[in-house]
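Workshop exercise sheet. Pairs work together: one partner reads the sequence aloud, the other fills in the structure field after running the prediction. Swap roles for the next sheet.
Pair: D.N. / O.F.
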Amino acid sequence: MRILIVCGSIADNARIKTVLKHLEDLLKQKHTEATFWDLKERPLVIAIPELHSNPMETPDTNTQDFLNAVENADGLVLGSPLYHGSYSGVLKNALDNLRQDALRNKTVALVSNSSNIRNCTIPCDHLRLVVRSLHGHVIQGQIGTATEDFEEKDGQHILVSADIQKRCENLTEEIINVTEALNSSSHE
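Structure field:
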């Protein structure tokens, strides 16, 4: 099973990246092939509307690699901080680069972060609609973190919330189980 983890933050020390890296470790512990795509390290070109029907015609090799990674994944984890009341523009652009049914028969888990607990799931709520429009299967569980779930040590964020760590374990189990069930039903 292949899971693509997409980090929708370009901040140097993003809390969302910390959570997504934790999920990557958990998935690998479960013998799942997890690939981390950092949109800061591997940015994509601005989506070209004329290529929506065939995005692989993009001249940008990095974007072609991303499209192939999505195509070859059985499931995805999308993570974003809260930016101006929604998810990040870099993640929106990544999703805009996909063809309209790019997530068909793919399981998608959503993760977000905000400075406070009241707003932390807003990016997940907005992403849920976009994933459905791309024909993806959003799993029920999601994770929303806030500043209080982390401590800073040597300039790096560390996930310290036992509750969020447990939710990460549950999300890992859920994406694996739902992806396996979806894969077995699509091959029947």
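Discussion prompt: Strands lie at 2-7, 33-38, 75-81, 107-114, 137-146, 150-153, 156-159. What would you look at next?
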